[in-house]
Structures are given as structure tokens and as C-alpha cells.
Amino acid sequence: MLDHGAPPRTLPTETPAPGLGARLMRRKPVEHLVAEGGHGEGGTLRRSLGMWQLTMISIGATLGTGIFVVLGDAVPKAGPAVTIAFVIAGLTALFSALSYAELAGTIPVAGSSYSYAYATMGELVAWVCGWCLVLEYGVSVAAVAVGWGEYLNELLDGTIGVTLPDVISSAPGEGGVINLPGLVVVLLAMVFLLGGARESAVVNTIMVAVKIVALALFCAIGFMGFKSGNYRDFMPLGTAGVSAAGASLFFSYIGFDAASTAGEEAKNPKRDLPRAIMLSLLIVTVLYVLVAAVAVGAWNWKKFAGSEATLAAIMNDVTGQTFWGTMLAAGAVISIASVVLTVLYGQTRILFAMSRDGLVPKVFGKVSGKTGTPRVNTVIVSLFCGVLASLIPLGKLVDATSIGTLFAFGLVNIAVIVLRYTRPDMPRTFKVALGPVFPVLGFVFCAYNMFSLDAVTWVVFGCWMAAGLVFYFLYGARRSRLATAPAEQFAGAPAEEK
Prior knowledge:
Layout: H1 20-24, H2 30-35, E1 39-40, E2 43-44, H3 51-62, H4 65-78, H5 82-106, H6 113-120, H7 123-159, H8 166-169, H9 180-194, H10 197-224, H11 238-249, H12 269-298, H13 310-319, H14 323-356, H15 375-391, H16 394-422, H17 437-450, H18 455-479, H19 481-484
Helix pairs in contact: 3-10, 3-12, 3-14, 4-7, 4-11, 4-12, 5-11, 5-12, 5-16, 5-17, 6-7, 6-16, 7-9, 7-14, 7-15, 7-16, 7-18, 9-14, 9-15, 10-12, 10-13, 10-14, 13-14, 14-15, 16-17, 16-18
């Protein structure tokens, strides 16, 4: 019987065959993944998060990104049919969320889909998935931080009548030298995360409440300016426009899986993680569709092109006053900061899991005995994301994040099917209905949205994956704990795992 109170001394897995293929397909048994949960270099993560806090982490990581930042880019692609684009993106997220919920309840660890792939499809696939998650979480932090600066300017303009000059508020290529606000919000999130997971969760819950109130306020005021004529030409750019917008808007749903990265800090992960994932996605989808419908009803879709801080501009236009737009901008500044906080949290926990497996340097797995957090990991990731936010334009970041996320989500859907086949009797606190049907649909939706992205995004993704494979074969494959553990330790895996 595995001792859950101390890190396991051995790494039970199937005996590796001598060939290269067998080494790349070596898997980490579910039981061992769960048993080593929380243990890092020099300390352990603290289990302090309940179901409500986990739900707030997922909502905090998701709600706000698409509405406050990306809506202005998506409406010109789809017109009023942007509401359908949100539904398409939401369906893609839903099927993948079902798969996440099953695996999070079965394998409640910090690595999220990286760990699920390790247990089902082998080390190489797990590495590819983890590398995609680095792209998903790390780059999305930077992208959201860029959008935060736009609303900060809107707030400053409405309160004191000044805005930050482009030279310090825009990235190179957009008229500036550095996006200082983007860097600042990432560093603020870093400070909160260094204080501890529970303390960060409290701050996040407050910020989530603020963002929900802000969006409710927008709906109430925006509805007063609703014009049915704005929906007359519902799909001006055809289904191709809706598909393109849906692929970009999938960025808006990035984060619903953030609760799964907290598997080693949840009090009752097997029960609470599936509930938190599904509840957060439901709340976010309803709010997204409602706000998008009101926004397009209040503003002709052609006015969205090139508009920054879109929701605040709509409120100013509807009321003829700047006060309400300023209030919304204040809410956006707070709520977008919560996205940065929670997504940054997820990134550090994924790298923590990868470090524990030996696939990335040990420094990412060191845990502070004082705060129970991977402090050095948090500082390194925050500085990296802060530099991206300060130097890279928003549009380039969004699509790159979406393709990495879609790829990782596709692998999660496959992992559910594989684990159902290899470990059918394993206890599951949540099961996706209709056997493999929903996971297959989730995979198909992910693939459809991936191929809706432009060629440049695919080139960037290909370069990113090539770099990841080079790093894996030069570093991770040699230093993996499964590769370096003595052969006599490779024993004790369940029969299905051999």
C-alpha cells in the first residue's frame, strides 16, 4: 500500500524495453503520480483549497480575457454572429472540460494534462503536452497583461484626464518601446503568489466578485442602448468568419482547467476538482454569451474594428457620459489582474510537476518550507512572462496561445479513452457520459479550431514544438527520473501498466 504521507522511494513502472521507442513510451503509473503529490525539492505544497476556492481559480483564470480583451478583435471577423462563435468555442471547451473533470478526479495532481498524458500515453507525449502548456499558460499571462494596460489607460483618462504615453505603454511595433503596465501587473501577481496559495486564493475571490459585478453593470447599461437593427446583417462574413472568430475566441476559455493544476493543494481533490471545473465553465459561458449579445446590440459590429477597451467605450457611447465607462474600466483593471494571477499560478504548478519528473531543471521543483510555494519557480516564470508582456503585441500572443491550448486539450480527450481502456476498474469520482463519444467529439472540435487558425500561427507553433523536442532529447530524455532510476526499481506497477 502506498504511503501518502511521504514521497515514494521508488518509481514503479513497466520494465523499459531496450529500444528507443520503448524509452519514449515509458509511462508513470497513476498510483505513483497520486502518491508523490505535493512533494517537491526541500518541502511540500500545502493542501488549503476548498471547492469554492478552486472554482474561483478557474473563473479567475478564464472570465474577462475574451470579453475585456479579445472581443474587439473577434467581432470584425464574425459580425453579430460573434455570439455563435462564443458558443462554438464554448462547446469545444465543454467536451474537453468533461474529459478534464474525469481525469482531475482520477489523477488529482499539479501537472494537469501533462500528468494525465504521462500516465496514459508515455513520456514523449507528456513532454509535448507539457511544452504546449508552457505556451498556453505562459504566453496567455503575457497576452492578458497587455490588455490590462489598455483598460488602465481608460481608467486614468476617466479619472485624472491623462494616459500613459505610447512609448511606455505599447510594445515595439505598435508605436512604443516597452509596455510597462503589462510588466507591472505580472510582477504584482508574482508578489501575491509568493505569499502562499491560500492567501492568493482569497485575493482572487475578491477580484472575481468585482469582475462579475462589472459585467452585470455593463449588461444593465448596455441593454438600454440595444438596437435590434444591429442584428439585421447577422453573418456578414459567412461561416468562415464565424469559424475564424471561434478559433480566436477559444483563447477566452483558456483557464477553465486552472483548477486541475491545484490538485496537490486541494483539500479534497477527487471530489472538488471535477465540480469546480464544470461549474466554472458553465458560469463563464453564460456570461460571455450574454455580454457579447448586449455589446453587439448596443454597437454596430463595424465600430469594433480597432477599438480598445471596447466595453468601456460602449458604455460611454450609450450613456453619453464617461463615468460609467470609467467604472467599468476600474472593474476591468481588477478583473484582468485576477486572470494574470491565476494563470501564472497554473504555469508554476505545471513546471513544478515537470521538474519533479526530471524533465526540466530542479530549480522549478524547489518548495519554500515557509510558504509552501515554489518560490524560485514563481520568480523565474513571472520575469519571463513580464518580459513577453512588455515587448510582444497582443494579437500575436493570442493565436499562439490558442493553438497550444487546443493541442493540449486534444491530448486530454485521448487520455480519457486510453485510461478507460487500460484501467477500466480504476475508481473515478466523475465519468464522461456515453463512453468515448464525448472525448472523441472534444478531440474533433479541438482539431477543427486548430485548422481554422492562420498559417503564420502554425509556423510559430511548429517552431515552438521543434524547440521543445530539441530540449527534450538533449536534456529531459537523459535526466528523466524514469530514465535514471535503477532498473530494479521498475517494479510494482499494476498489471495494466506493464
